[in-house]
Amino acid sequence: MSSERVPVELSKGVNGLERIILRETRGSSAEVYLYGGHVTSWKNEHGEELLFVSSKALFKPPKAIRGGIPICFPQFSNHGPLEPHGFARNKLWSIDTDPPAFPTNSSSKAYIDLILKPSEEDMKIWPHSYEFRLRVALGPGGDLMLTSRIRNTNTDGKPFTFTFAYHTYFSVSDISEVRVEGLETLDYLDNLLNKQRFTEQGDAITFEAEVDKIYLSTPTKIAILDHEKKRTLVLRKDGLPDAVVWNPWDKKAKAMADFGDDEYKHMLCVEAAAIEKPITLKPGEEWRGRQELSAVPSSYCSGQLDPRRVLQGS
User: Fold this and answer.
1) CATH number of the domain within which 274 lies
2) Which residues are named in the active-site annotation (predicted)?
3) pTM (2 decimals)?
4) Using an 8 Å Cβ cutoff, are 161 and 138 in contact?
5) Is residue 255 situated within a structural domain?
6) pLDDT digits 0-9 by tens, 178-210
7) What is the C-alpha separation between 249 and 208, in angstroms, rounded?
8) What residues act catalytically?
């Protein structure tokens, strides 16, 4: 049997749900479930898991999978009349066998194109016709890229409006040893205080209690520095002006049936999003939102972080 890595493999995952495994030649990998169009794993070339999935996550439709990268569409959280975070994350997506031309600067063969279209049942909940195309790709260096393209295919001439997020759960060693760089001095909406607007302090964001904030007009690059793992996770984004930062902390963790009581210590959500200013598409119009995740070794000493090297780099 050949030892050559197969870049794209379709297999059965938890509870028999279909998944796609992407492998890059240097050893990095990713796993995508057709249920939810949901990335559930992203490993570097050393086989280290970079995303968090709860040990109590249910891989049972219609429940969303707790962890990885859920897709929030057409509504983020409770910012609208639909179910929290919309319905894309608990629908069965299809492999897109004939995607339109896709501009790419990567020679990687480790990618998959998925598509979601509304069912008759979906149209009763949200009466709009759309095509949601998602490409998940692994770059040659192990970077994970997600590109969403949402097109209004209404035939009645009506526009539609939506909010969106890649609800990424990152795996961290110890939440108390983590800091987020790139969101200093920005305005944010605090979901724990009725979405009141505040301005972030000038220092890096650290974690000592529950956090649920929507940062507005954010830069295209955000860094998550994990001191204990000596690793920096970098999120680059395009078409997604907002960034959500969330950790449930102990009380909320205990209240969630599909989340371990102490797992809040080992995860952090930093989510590329479009929330404050919803996106409106007329029939025939298309929106694109992209995020790229990379992991770089960091030799920062505690208290001597120089994240500008990461944030201002390429």
Assistant:
1) 2.70.98.10
2) 167, 271
3) 0.93
4) no
5) yes
6) 999 999 999 999 999 999 999 999 889 999 999
7) 9
8) 167, 271
